[in-house]
């Protein structure tokens, strides 16, 4: 079996679409995802899927052992630590790195109901002053941080329906009335009905872009008069020798056409 020379990091929908592009182009690759859920999301791709989190040292050893000649970082826009580890490993090995940037809609969204913040602490502080029933559509990874900063409030969490995530919700002290285990994508109409159903008074989300259904989350808030707090993306740009940034899937397709 031919050993793939391109390694992709990312359990996002963008990463899967990049894999599909490579399948169509006949390019050999391997995909790394952190969890079995990420592997499920990538079902149907032709490349090998590697499951498990890696720190910089382990990542360096793995890429060297596999004789990887190019890395594509298509991880989640908020996965700062992972991206930093990828940069470190690639620079240690002098392996070219393609950093995929998911396009953002945040600069086009301005409204009195929308509150843009830089940290979880700021998001919770603003939310605590706007209502009691606070809906999180931020995923489960940092759920414990939100719960800690929102003591005294009713935290409602929309999360993926996996045993691991549900156990995390329970460990954070959330009851069955506070957990909504659903998998997107969700339309704006669905979100509007959902916000009304769970009687949310404030919604906290991330600047997830088109792939993350950002507009579909925000637009119903505006029509319902529901305050929406947006945790903006980290502003760290991973630049340096051997790193190429690619903005959006169309640009990635053009790049892959020359691989």
Any idea what the shape is? Answer: elongated
The portion of residues assigned to helices is 25-40%
Between the first and last Cα atoms, what is the distance in angstroms?
20 Å
Mind summarizing the main beta sheet?
Answer: 6 strands, parallel
**What is the succession of H and E elements?**
EHEHEHEHEEHEHEHEHEHEEH
Mean pLDDT: 90
Counted beta strands: 12
Uncertain residue segments: none
| Order of strands in the sheet with most strands | 3-2-1-4-5-12
Strand content: 15-25%
Secondary-structure-based class equals alpha/beta
Radius of gyration: 19 Å
Number of H- or I-type helical stretches: 10
Pathway: Cofactor biosynthesis; adenosylcobalamin biosynthesis
Pfam family, one: CbiJ
Enzyme class: oxidoreductase
InterPro entries: Precorrin-6x_reduct
What does this structure look like?
The chain has helices at 13-25, 36-41, 56-65, 80-93, 120-128, 143-149, 163-171, 188-197, 214-224, 249-256, and strands spanning 6-9, 29-33, 48-51, 70-73, 97-101, 114-117, 133-136, 154-159, 179-181, 202-206, 228-231, 243-247. The protein has 259 residues and is α/β, with parallel strands linked by helices. The strands form 2 sheets. The protein has a 6-stranded parallel sheet, sandwiched between helices. Strands 6-11-10-7-8-9 form a 6-stranded parallel sheet, with helices on both faces. Helix 1 packs parallel to helix 10 (249-256), helix 3 packs across helix 4 (80-93) and helix 8 (188-197) packs across helix 9. The longest helix has 14 residues, at 80-93.
């Amino acid at each position: 079996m031919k050993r793939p020379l391109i390694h992709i990091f990312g359990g996002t929908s963008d990463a899967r679409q990049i894999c599909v592009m490579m399948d169509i182009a006949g390019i050999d690759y391997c995909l790394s995802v952190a969890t079995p859920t990420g592997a499920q999301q990538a079902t149907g791709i032709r490349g090998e899927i590697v499951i498990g989190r890696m720190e910089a040292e382990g990542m360096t050893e793995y890429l060297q052992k596999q004789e990887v000649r190019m890395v594509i970082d298509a991880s989640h826009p908020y996965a700062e630590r992972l991206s930093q580890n990828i940069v470190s490993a690639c620079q240690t090995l002098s392996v070219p790195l393609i950093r995929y940037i998911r396009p953002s809609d945040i600069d086009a969204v301005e409204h009195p109901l929308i509150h843009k913040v830089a940290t979880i602490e700021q998001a919770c502080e603003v939310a605590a002053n706007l209502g009691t029933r606070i809906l999180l559509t931020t995923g489960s990874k940092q759920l414990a941080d939100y719960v800690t900063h929102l003591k005294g409030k009713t935290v409602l969490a929309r999360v993926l329906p996996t045993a691991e995530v549900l156990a995390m919700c329970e460990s954070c002290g959330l009851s069955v009335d506070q957990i909504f285990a659903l998998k997107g994508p969700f339309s704006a109409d669905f979100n509007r009905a959902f916000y009304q159903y769970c009687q949310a008074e404030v919604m906290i989300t991330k600047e997830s872009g088109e792939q993350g259904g950002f507009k579909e989350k925000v637009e119903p808030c505006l029509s319902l008069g529901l305050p929406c707090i947006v945790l903006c993306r980290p502003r760290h740009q991973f630049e340096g020798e051997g790193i190429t940034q690619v903005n959006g899937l169309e640009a990635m397709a053009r790049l892959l056409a020359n691989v």
